[in-house]
Specification:
The complex is a heterodimer of chains A (198) and B (191).
Chain A lengths: L2 H6 L15 H7 L3 H25 L8 H23 L1 H7 L10 H11 L4 H31 L1 E2 L2 E2 L12 H22 L4
Antiparallel strand pairs in A: 1-2
Helix pairs in contact in A: 3-4, 3-6, 3-7, 4-5, 4-6, 6-7, 7-8
Chain B lengths: L6 H45 L12 E5 L2 E10 L2 E11 L7 E7 L5 E8 L47 H22 L2
Antiparallel strand pairs in B: 1-2, 2-3, 3-4, 4-5
The chains are: A mainly alpha (198), B alpha+beta (191).
Chain lengths: 198, 191
């Protein structure tokens, strides 16, 4: 597979959220606004890239039977670093995302990429894979965030374009499922059209 | 190819990975300790400035913390030229609709409430979140009132507070937190 294809697969063809339907817990919970979605997506991207790199570099040194605990330790370390840095330098967004930052540890996407890709592929391919998957995840969260923020709060990136409240259900849990469901349907349709309109 | 999974290989690999990870985390924690503490302090001081008139001391260094009702309340005295101009009370309630609510309540020496800001709340968007000043004028009805005559209860419970429509629980919780702040202020500063 070419590097470019490897990078772009996370956006549509193998989008972790819309196609693989992984990591739905943070996806549904934090996408009440674009800023939250981006914050969560970029934090996860950082963890994905770093853990993919380290795991790919160590893949020949880790005995098969203890590979999962090893992966988890690596991932958890990077997540904790992200958590600390955010608490120190990005207080506002850290307060918003709260518990979901430490929970990146158990995000299936991160461990999934470590196990399915980084443990079998070269350093550079794993780096590109982490970056592509991370951006795909960020893109998905941003799309959900934009839609939910626009409908639910009537604002874009925190800037109000209507007065008063929006359709509140969209910033609450049921709205998350609604937007998520429609987004999956839309992406599936898009993928079908791109693969020859069958 | 991966190393064979012998007992020694497994134990040593895990040991080394954990060792390196904890070292890295130690470094990260040491590096971010100061910014985290600073950010937390900055948040408090901004809140104190919002709820009280101008002061020139450092309320944070003169603060005292009291444990009550399963939580803790912190009192920050604000002074100007050595004279107390107000007390900021960081109070809480466990009666929120969705977890703890934390408020910073500014009280003036004569016993009236100056201003109140919400430090932390997770109330329902569109309903309970109207306790924050950006979302509605609910909290403003407390400003400048003396709790001795202004009953800190919603009207439904026989008090003087206009509750937020469809968010009586959040309104009650807000009153609960303010009452707690006022009680502590009474005990400590008006003997």
């Amino acid at each position: 597979m070419s590097m470019w294809k490897n990078f772009t697969k996370g956006f549509l063809r193998e989008n972790p959220v819309f196609i693989l339907v992984l990591g739905t817990c943070p996806t549904l919970a934090v996408t009440t606004s674009l800023a939250n979605g981006l914050g969560m997506g970029l934090s996860t991207t950082f963890v994905l890239v770093m853990s993919n790199l380290v795991i790919s570099a160590l893949k020949n040194l880790i005995p098969d039977k203890v590979r999962i605990p090893c992966f988890i330790v690596v991932i958890a370390s990077f997540v904790t670093i992200v958590d600390l840095v955010m608490a120190g330098y990005f207080q506002a967004i850290h307060a918003q995302l709260g518990i979901f930052i430490p929970l990146i540890v158990v995000n299936c996407i991160v461990l999934g990429r470590a196990e399915a890709f980084a443990a079998k592929n070269s350093l550079s391919a794993s780096f590109v894979d982490g970056l592509g998957m991370g951006f795909g995840f960020t893109l998905a969260l941003a799309v959900l965030g934009v839609v939910r923020e626009a409908l639910g709060a009537g604002s874009f990136f925190g800037h109000k374009f209507i007065s008063g409240d929006g359709i509140l259900v969209f910033v609450l849990a049921p709205g998350a499922f609604l937007v998520f469901g429609y987004a999956i349907a839309f992406v599936n349709r898009l993928n079908k059209m791109m693969s020859g309109g069958k | 190819m991966a190393k064979p999974s012998t007992f020694f290989n497994m134990v040593s690999t895990l040991f080394v990975i954990c060792l390196v990870s904890s070292a890295a985390l130690g470094v990260a924690s040491a590096l971010t300790k100061e910014p985290i503490a600073k950010a937390a302090l900055a948040k408090r001081i901004t809140a104190i400035k919002q709820v009280l008139p101008e002061f020139d001391n450092e309320p944070l260094s003169e603060s005292s913390t009291i444990s009550v009702d399963g939580g803790s309340v912190t009192v920050y005295p604000a002074k100007k030229q050595g004279k107390i101009v107000g007390i900021a009370v960081e109070t809480f309630t466990l009666k929120g609709f969705n977890g703890q609510i934390k408020l910073m309540v500014g009280l003036l020496p004569r016993g009236t409430i100056d201003k109140i800001v919400v430090l932390q709340a997770n109330e329902t968007p569109g309903l309970g979140d109207k306790i924050t000043a950006e979302k509605s004028d609910f909290s403003k009805q407390f400003f400048g009132k003396d709790p001795a005559t202004f009953m800190l209860k919603v009207k439904k419970d026989g008090g003087s507070v206009d509750a937020i429509t469809a968010a009586t629980i959040s309104s009650r919780a807000f009153c609960d937190a303010v009452t707690r702040a006022y009680d502590i202020y009474q005990q400590r500063f008006r003997k």
